[in-house]
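Thread: quick sanity check before group meeting

JM: Hey all, I'm pulling together slides for Thursday and realized we never actually wrote out the predicted structure for the chain we discussed last week. Dropping the sequence here so it's in one place. If anyone has concerns about the input, flag it before I start.
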Amino acid sequence: MPLFMDHHKGVEGLSAEAVAEAHKKDLETQDEYGVKYHRYWYNEETGEVFCLAEAPNKEAAEAVHREAHGLVADEIIEVRELLPKRMATVPLGF
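JM (edit): ok, ran it. Output follows.
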C-alpha cells in the first residue's frame, strides 16, 4: 500500500497533548477508510505537524483527518522509505 506524509502548517494552540489526542482519533477512524496511521512529528513553536500513514490514496488519508478531528493537512505527498541494506531486516516498531 502507498505511504503518505502529510504536513499541517500553523496549527493554533499546538501541544503534545493536542497532537496525541488527534492521533488517537485518527486511529479510531482509520479502518473505515482502509488507512493505517503510523507516526507523527510536531513542532510546538512553528505549529507544524507531520503524519505518516499507509493509505490506498491521499484522499483516503485526508478523509480520516477530516472525520476524526477536522484538522486536514495543508499538503500530502506520497513517499517511499529507503533503508540501508544492513538495516533492511530491522523492524520499524509500528
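AS: nice. The domain at 3-87 is CATH 3.30.70.3090 (Alpha-Beta Plaits). DSSP finds two helices and four strands in the chain.
JM: adding both to the slides.
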